[in-house]
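Structure tokens please, single chain.
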Amino acid sequence: MVVLVIGLGGYQLFSKIDKALMGEGCSATAEGGEIQLEVPQAANAATIAGVAHREKLPRRALVIAYATAEQESHIENLAYGDRDSVGIFQQRPSQGWGTPEQLQDPVYAATRFFAALVKVEDYTEREVHDAAQRVQRSFDGSLYAQHETMAEILTTGFAGESPAAITCWYPVKADAAAPRPAEAVKELRRTFGDRFALEGQAIGLPEKASKATGWSVATWAMAHARTYGFTRVRHGGYSWTPEEGEDGWVKDASAPADRVLLD
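Here you go.
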């Protein structure tokens, strides 16, 4: 689950625990504070941001999505829930959202959530909890409001607004599988759209891609590094490795701005 303490300065990392002693995890840092997540939660959050990018949605849509996902599942891809609810957004097959298998695919689940959200009249002008409730129809829609600050912090990092704002750390096993960049880019294209290409061991960014787009893609690659066997991700003058991830991204002059290098 996401571990938070709410204080006057916003969300703070729980008990100020030294990340290096925690074994594995992720953190998102922004002006509003710092949030701790588990690695699978970070991967899910990165996917939600990628789908929002693919659909060319405004920032507010992503904030609403994160607040909803935190309330419904703690941004976990659950195989269970209230009645027949499953997945990140706890969507119900019996209500026409899709099959259980589809709804446990984070890309599909996020796509369906956003498709419903954009049908809400003036959703970008509504309070977060109001917009979320008009999609979810939950028992108590007011509960989404408590996650707005957290959702803002996640949006800042996963949408790439703040470079290198998301980091994960975990030990790499000696028998870890070899990197699979082709598989990663295939999934990236399914998430972000087909404008991204595999260039050797790198993700090629579209021409004139914004700095935020580059960092959103780099963050996605970092959050999915364990899945696809990457032990280093480089982009925009920074480098990340899982063993040193507790210290965040480090400056690296070899990291280009027009590609995301995968090692």
